[in-house]
Amino acid sequence: MPSIQTQGLIYEVRSGDTLYSIAEKFGSTIKGIERANHLFPPVTDRGLIFPGDVLVIPTSTSNPIMSYIIAKGNTLNAIAQMFSTHVDLLAGINQIENSNLIKLGQRLIVPAFTYKIVSGDTLHSISRQFGVSIADIEKANADRPGFQKDVIWPDYHLIIPIPTSRNILVTRPLPGAVVTNNQRVSGYARVFEAVVNYQLRDSNGVIVTNERFATTSEGAPAYGSFSAELPFDRHPTSDSGELRVYSRSPKDGSIQDLVKIKVYF
Asked: Any idea which fold 8-161 has?
């Protein structure tokens, strides 16, 4: 099943907020917010929200990577824990010089996207589909009014964290995506001499794309963006596989900061 290809915002309800005011503020709709968070019985009275509730706000922005709206009391460390990632990476991709200084209402790029639940889904099946642990999914959706571990609702927008290392975030392809010959692999990396490596394997261990490298827009200690083609050197022998993105040690050439993204063919 495909992920949602438009951007979702993660927003904590403040005192005085209404669904109307939130929808107006972020260019969304009341119905869209209600569906994305299942603001219906038996979870709650229709449209009822409370301060502290964490909502996914669907938008029409054509970028599936989510943004988090800084709320009162947030710290970058707590946000990093929510998405099972690292403070260094969050600060780096958002160009934050001091990780202790974040502003109320500031938007942060976070390593996550949304998936719209369909009838028959379970957290176990979703975890297998995207190659992301149930524990990480539960952590990313904590404090959301419509999220329960034992019951999930069709049309609910589930937050799926993207696997990262301390120094690498892959933004394309997303976990669970279908990859094709010569499509692009993109993301952010903090790597030695601005070189990030990647390789594609199928689930039988066949190397579909030989190791190649991309050059980031900036070298370490900055996090630079990268984008490169993903050509198939061999035909996949299975329906699923793994994109590996990493750096190599300048000392001995060993793999560092390995990120694995589950993909399909």
From this structure: Membrane-bound Lytic Murein Transglycosylase D; Chain A (3.10.350)
